[in-house]
Structures
1.
Amino acid sequence: MTKNIMIVGVGGQGSLLASKLLGHLLLTEGYDVKVSEVHGMSQRGGSVVTYVRFGEKVYSPIIDKGQADFIVSFEKLEAARYLEFLKADGRIVVNTQEIDPMPVITGAAQYPADLVAKMEALGAKVDAMDCLSLAEQAGSSKAVNIVLMGRLSRYFDEIPVEKWQKAIEDCVPAKFLELNQKAFLLGRG
Amino acid sequence: MKRLMLGNQAFARGLYEAGCSVVSSYPGTPSTEVTEEAAKYDEIYCEWAPNEKVAMEVAFGACLAGKRSFCGMKHVGLNVAADPLFTCSYTGVNAGMIICVADDPGMHSSQNEQDSRHYAMAAKVPMLEPADSAEARDFVKKAYEISETFDTPVIMKMCTRVAHSQSVVEEQERVLPEKKPYVKNIAKYVMMPGNAIRRHPFVEERTRKLIEFAETTDLNRVEMGDTKLGIITSSTSYQYVKEVFGENASILKLGMIHPLPEKLILDFAAKVDKLVIVEELDPVIEEHCKVLGLTVTGKDVLPLEGEFSQNLIAEKLGVEVPASKKLDENLPGRPPVMCAGCPHRGLFFTLAKNKCTVLGDIGCYTLGAVAPLNAMEMTLCMGASISSLHGFNKALGEESEGKTVAVIGDSTFMHSGMTGLANVAYNQSNSTVIILDNSITGMTGHQQNPTTGYNIKGDPAGKIDLEALCKAMGFERVRVVDPYDLAQCDAVLKEELAVAAPSVIISRRPCALLKYVKHEKPLKVVCENCVGCKSCMRLGCPAISVKDGKAVIDTTLCVGCGVCKQLCKFNALQNR
């Protein structure tokens, strides 16, 4: 059975490292893996989405509506935007950080209130946490991606924590390794 | 070793393993990484060419000399390179030559959604279409074999979902092909009428042989399942079809998309009750099947526009799709924006303030068209800003000359802006051309170009002097401004628009995302000074917002460019 993880956020938040880490980890665990990302125009501060799929044999590189087992969101509004991709029993892991999009910055729109509660009201399982504070605690606001991976790792009973830590070691430059391992554990909680 | 590779990375691996020696490309999403990854192999000479036409001619020269060669581009790049393409179909090759063209269904990062398969048909060259990374690598090797066996360049067509998806590839060794010495052959390689007229029958005969090849090659394969439904498909559409139907349909997966087989398709059609063609964009396979006399379902139910997905195919072909829930409110969109500290912002602000009509071009700075600046009114294709401005001013004369400008990036100017500028110089329109020189090719992810002074590997290279170039073309007025200095931009723009002579303004400052660019400390808001006038908000900088009537600086985004400070009359924005 193919499992689907969507990583969503704002261009420039570091989702490429998260998908690289997941892809590497799942491949070493013996799964067939596909990771799909969008480059170019969408990366300039726009809404970005990456698909990670794994299982015995994966065909489509993308995840469609109603299919995501997990939505890992770097930002609250983006979690809400992609909610319809979530499976009926899927889970959202979301950083509660709010990044105003241009229509909000210019005053053309308001940042919606109570998004977590609204998503929960629709039956979504939402694991919301302030990843930015944890990342800063680990030593850099840029480590939000690894904090989120730490949180996500709680839902993978079949993959021991050491395997995640080894994957981080393989994917992160040595000088940032300690910071990222710390961020991972803070996220995992 | 098994590795996850982007389709483009696997393509580059294929070039390495197949013994490719020379690569010349122009960057363009989603094709760029093929060349970037190829450049990591020291065995392959790689370069960024000024444009796709040059790149294809370089690759042709290299294959003529006897080395396997490659050029890569996005779909619209093939329009630029169409001239050499159509005639190197006639000359054929010496060593193998592959052209990568990457389509962008869904237009994630493109100005149109053209279907490149038409080029293979029109130029009469074979086209292969891989469906994942492993196939991308394997097909490169097969493409070189086809190229050398049939004496033809071969196009490999990628698309966003194959180019930018990672899947598993098992690496193999590099094998150098046998040597192909260059032999003088005027009848084959000098395409003047008397020779070309003799090459055309060769091209037609080659296509006949390639159709025979298409009947039996393992590039095309049949996967029999339930015979109630038969599906002919290719590329990423194959993956969606497998996802939806698995064994519940029989599939003819085409890896060679031109020329298409005939007998193979007819045999497959005979084995299934109903035949459906699943292909993104235009009905290329479908039309071929109809010519063969088959009754098929295709574009009567599937869309001509946009990219496909598993749910789209399921829905259109009567398979249930999973339920999903949506928040019942309008969420604010998050369109891409110019980055904080982007040097283009100050210049576009100046253009908006002066109510200029701005004819634009292709690059990050196309974002000058979005709110709140809304400071661009036309974007067509690479280089069109300058030539269109010339036409605009020739049409309207004094009515437009004093308030209309062209804006074009440094890389786009090198690509095809120079010829437009030559036209301004030659046919003398009173045009003001602004070159946005951010010292890099930005949108595609920071590739070097002929004005940056570095090559694809980051080593020092030739550097074209833009001022000297414009002056050599005959422009007496060439001005350089710093787009972080709003007063200077405003003064120079006004002067150049007022003067009755063609002029070039070079707005020069490197892209804020370049690693070597040192950032200033984020600005701070002095709350007691801020009156909430929102003057700073006119810039559309993602680092500035207004909360509770006061400006707020996002210190994680602000790079201290200080452009907003120049707009604040109350000294509320200050350096730390």
Note: The longest helix of chain B spans residues 193-216.
2.
Amino acid sequence: MANNNVLPDDLIVEILLRLPVKCLKRFSCVCKAWYAVTRDPVFMAKHLDQTDSSDDGNASTLICHTREYSFSMLSNETLDHVPTRISMFSGLHYRFPIVYGPCNGILCPYSRKGLTLWNPATREIKSLPRTTFRHSKFWECAHTFMAFGRDSKTHDYKVVRFLTLPIRKAELYTLSSDSWRQMDLDVPAYIDRTNIINSSMKGRLITGWDLIMRMVTL
Amino acid sequence: MAFTKKVTLKSSDGELFIIDRAVALQSRTIQYVLEDTNPVDAIIPVPAVDARTLSKVLEYCKKHLIDLNTDFEDYSKWDKDFVDAEVWMLYDLIMAADYLHIPPLIDLICDKIASMFKGQTPDKIREIFNIDNDFSKEEEEDFKKKSGWAFK
């Protein structure tokens, strides 16, 4: 049997689902069929589910080295250096980068130069377009509130940005449109930065993101 | 008893395996055959699986018969030893498990093959699974340039 080992497609998918992202990236050049499998949104969603639910060490920890603004990823007991474009974190207001997320393994780092969507596992980086309003003064940064997440209905990644002072404004970025638009919303005067709001309804904790999504999808 | 307690399976190379019905029922393919035809003392052919592989599969089915005396720890140790085999054997086993439709065995072998894949190069994978590289040299070079980190 040694020379006609051809596995059926469904078994190949089952095996690939069990591999960490780094292996998938490497094996996507095995042949065009495998490449197609790894780029398939259904496969990606399943892989994410599998990684989320498994407890065999597939989880990764991202380590930030603040002195040199570099990152390492600790997964499967190996430590990988994750190179980033240094410009992504230059000109930060704080020594430590402000990073929103993670949401499905995607982070949203924020610097003076703008926002970025970053998947450290696949090394994919996407700069977001310019926001519709920008800080003119340094202190305004302290009155900006942001949230990054995925709309569970449309499966679209979204970034919501509020400015509470000197004027109240809100804007929304959607990955599907790759653009920002201003929103006609009653922006609250103060938004809890802890990102968690205790809802009185049924004593359930809802996150700031849930609340914002409810406002945004209205 | 309306059902026979024993079932006879016949491998592709003609060997007969007389096993308990409960063991055979772990294969959904055989379960369907038994439900549909309920063959009494009949021989069920398994044309896709040779004797060596079939005996190995049946060994797994016997072990995994619901046994309240065996705890989970025992199974995982036994399973680990069971799939500690050469690639060609795993290949034959997974094809048999797929044909006989035994989901837990498919899962077990997929886990094992995936763990064997982890440190391999694309070249090695192509060799093991007899896959033709349909990318051009340029495409492959370009790929390595863009995703070089994944090859380290």
Note: Chain B has eight helices and three strands.
